[in-house]
Design brief:
Elements lengths: L9 E6 L4 H16 L3 E6 L26 H4 L3 H4 L4 H15 L5 H10 L3 E5 H6 L12 E3 L1 H7 L4 E4 L1
Parallel strand pairs: 1-2, 1-5, 2-3, 3-4
Helix pairs in contact: 1-5
Length: 161
C-alpha cells in the first residue's frame, strides 16, 4: 500500500454516474492523485454506486442513446443506438480502446486505487434507495451519509463527476 500524504493536499471525488465511460474519470483522477502523494476520498452516490457494486462493476456499459458526444466516435446515429445490442457493441468497442491505452478493467482499477491508499465510500441515502447493503459493495468500501462526507471533505479539493 502506498503511504498517504502528510495531509497538505486532499482530493475528494463524488461519483454520480455508473456508465463505463464515466467510471474511468474518477478512477484515473484518483490514481493520478495517489501517484503524486495526494490523499484521496471517493464518494459514490446514485448510479455511481454501480462502479463499486460487486455484481455490477464488471458489466458497466456505454449509453448509445442520449449521449451526443459519443456518437461521432462510434459513428452511430442516435436512432441506430436504440437497436438492441448496440449498447453492448459500443461497450465492447470502448473496452477495447481503453485496453489499448493499458488501463485495467473497472474491477481491477477500483482495487488498484484502493490498494494505493484511496478511501472508498458508498452514499448511505443512495444505498438505502437502491436497496444495497455494505456487503454489495467492494469489501474495502465504507458507508457514509452526506453530512459525514462533508466533514471528511473539509478543506479538500472537491470534484463532482
Amino acid at each position: 500500500m502506498t503511504e498517504k500524504s502528510n495531509g497538505n493536499r486532499k482530493l475528494c471525488i463524488i461519483t454520480s454516474k455508473g456508465s463505463l465511460d464515466m467510471a474511468y474519470i474518477p478512477l484515473i483522477l484518483a490514481n493520478s492523485a495517489r501517484m503524486t502523494g495526494i490523499d484521496v476520498e471517493l464518494f459514490f452516490t446514485f448510479w455511481g454506486l454501480d462502479v463499486i457494486t460487486k455484481k455490477k462493476m464488471g458489466g458497466l456499459n456505454v449509453a448509445t442513446v442520449g449521449n451526443p458526444s459519443m456518437h461521432p466516435w462510434f459513428h452511430i446515429p442516435t436512432l441506430l443506438g436504440a437497436i438492441p445490442g448496440m449498447s453492448a457493441a459500443a461497450s465492447w468497442m470502448m473496452r477495447q480502446e481503453i485496453g489499448k491505452l493499458d488501463f485495467p478493467p473497472v474491477p481491477e482499477f477500483v482495487q488498484l486505487v484502493i490498494d494505493s491508499g484511496a478511501n472508498v465510500y458508498g452514499c448511505k441515502m443512495s444505498m438505502d434507495m437502491m436497496k444495497l447493503t455494505k456487503d454489495d459493495l467492494v469489501d474495502e468500501a465504507e458507508v457514509l451519509g452526506a453530512m459525514e462526507f462533508m466533514e471528511l471533505s473539509e478543506g479538500a479539493q472537491l470534484l463532482l463527476v
